[in-house]
Amino acid sequence: MFSGRKLKEARNKRGMSQAAVAARMGLSGLYVSYWENGRYAPNGVNMVLLLRALGCELEEVTE
């Protein structure tokens, strides 16, 4: 299951802002904020883009 808390940890570990992650994905920074705060979870396509933007594995953002 996707974890906004773990996403935030993975992003901070890499020294990236929400805006930087979103820019690499071609999205608005609001998406990353919503995901981290548990308002929404990324769909399949956005999950792949998120993992690529962060350079991480699925296990780093799921519980």
Automatic annotation (TrEMBL):
Q: Which residues form the HTH cro/C1-type domain?
A: 7-61
Q: Which SUPFAM superfamilies does the record cross-reference, listed alphabetically?
A: lambda repressor-like DNA-binding domains
Which residues are the signal sequence here? none
> PROSITE patterns given for it?
HTH_CROC1
Sorted alphabetically, which CDD domains does this protein's record hold? HTH_XRE
Gene Ontology molecular function, alphabetical: DNA binding
One Pfam family linked to the record: HTH_3
What InterPro entries has UniProt attached to this entry? Cro/C1-type_HTH, Lambda_DNA-bd_dom_sf
| Name of the protein this chain belongs to | Transcriptional regulator
Q: Which organism is it from?
A: Streptomyces coelicolor (strain ATCC BAA-471 / A3(2) / M145)
